[in-house]
């Protein structure tokens, strides 16, 4: 089994760890295949309720493995084939009902932005840096960056990052909406796990379906989204995790109303 990406599962939590630290977790074909296969495996596992995406070493992901591109001799066709495999994994993660939190440290460059944005909630260390670098080496965005980046920060800001040699520090990435939180590096792993545990310890399925509705909704008509919302909330109401919470909410509301009527 490849160790370019590690997968562990415990108590409903899956942890996916990019694991080529010597190459800043740059993605080659083998790692891309592993990414796709893990995405399929985890998202089809009903025991998994939340996912942590993190990385070994000092960087989250340096993007595509440019050294491999330069030495492979496979030309553009080989790079496109690799991208298509990775895209399959990204699509699987994004359109699934598994909420994903990413723990991001160090550099996130090029296609690494796409892997990061596969996650639904991003916690960054205060030393994290975000760059494009595609055009610096004469390449164009891949790994979902041309879609996921403007969805996260808006088209104009995405163009600023892609069309200039621009580096975003952690605080600026937070201000732009690229990440959800910034924490000290020493707190990064713990905070990402805290986010995932919140999903697992509460209405897990409802969080997953809320994520799915938002992610899938961007690719459908308004009418299709409304129909999906109506069906999904009905299914949610019939779930055990919802029945208990709805009953508790109703009881608390009745108690509050009674206390107001009889002070």
Task: Describe the protein's architecture and organization.
The chain has helices spanning 29-43, 66-72, 75-94, 111-116, 145-153, 155-163, 170-176, 185-201, 204-217, 222-237, 240-261; strands at residues 5-10, 13-18, 50-55, 100-104, 107-109, 121-125, 129-131, 167-169, 181-183. It has a six-stranded mixed β-sheet, with helices on both faces. It has a three-stranded mixed β-sheet with strand order 5-7-8. By secondary structure, it is of the alpha/beta class. A hairpin with a 2-residue loop joins β1 and β2. The model has no long low-confidence stretch (mean pLDDT 92).
Strand order of the largest sheet: 1-2-3-4-6-9
Question: Which class best fits the helix and strand makeup?
Answer: alpha/beta
How would you describe the shape?
Answer: elongated
Strand content is: 15-25%
Integer-rounded radius of gyration: 20 Å
* Overall strand count: 9
What key phrases describe this protein's structure?
alpha/beta, three-stranded mixed beta sheet, 11 helices, 15% strand
Topology summary:
Elements: E1 5-10, E2 13-18, H1 29-43, E3 50-55, H2 66-72, H3 75-94, E4 100-104, E5 107-109, H4 111-116, E6 121-125, E7 129-131, H5 145-153, H6 155-163, E8 167-169, H7 170-176, E9 181-183, H8 185-201, H9 204-217, H10 222-237, H11 240-261
Parallel strand pairs: 2-3, 3-4, 4-6, 5-7, 6-9
Antiparallel strand pairs: 1-2, 7-8
Helix pairs in contact: 1-3, 5-6, 9-10
């Amino acid at each position: 089994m490849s160790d370019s990406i590690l997968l562990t599962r415990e108590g409903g939590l899956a942890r996916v760890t990019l694991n080529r630290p010597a190459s800043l977790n740059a993605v080659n074909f083998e790692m891309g295949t592993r990414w796709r296969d893990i995405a399929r495996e985890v998202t089809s596992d009903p025991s998994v309720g939340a996912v942590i995406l993190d990385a070994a070493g000092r960087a989250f992901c340096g993007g595509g493995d440019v050294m491999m591109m330069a030495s492979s001799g496979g030309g553009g066709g080989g790079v496109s084939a690799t991208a298509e495999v990775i895209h399959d994994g990204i699509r699987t993660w994004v359109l699934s009902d598994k909420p994903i939190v990413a723990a991001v440290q160090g550099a996130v460059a090029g296609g690494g932005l796409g892997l990061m944005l596969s996650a639904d909630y991003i916690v960054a260390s205060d030393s994290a840096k975000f760059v494009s670098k595609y055009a610096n080496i004469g390449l164009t965005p891949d790994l979902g960056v041309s879609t996921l980046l403007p969805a996260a920060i808006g088209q104009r800001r995405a163009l600023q990052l892609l069309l200039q040699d621009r580096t975003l520090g952690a605080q600026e990435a937070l201000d732009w909406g690229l990440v959800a939180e910034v924490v000290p590096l020493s707190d990064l792993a713990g905070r990402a796990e805290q986010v995932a545990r919140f999903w697992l310890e509460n209405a897990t399925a409802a969080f997953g379906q809320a994520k799915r509705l938002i992610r899938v909704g961007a690719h459908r008509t308004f009418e299709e989204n409304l129909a999906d919302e109506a069906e999904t909330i009905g299914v949610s109401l019939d779930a055990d995790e919802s029945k208990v919470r709805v009953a508790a909410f109703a009881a608390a509301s009745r108690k509050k109303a009674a206390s107001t009527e009889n002070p």
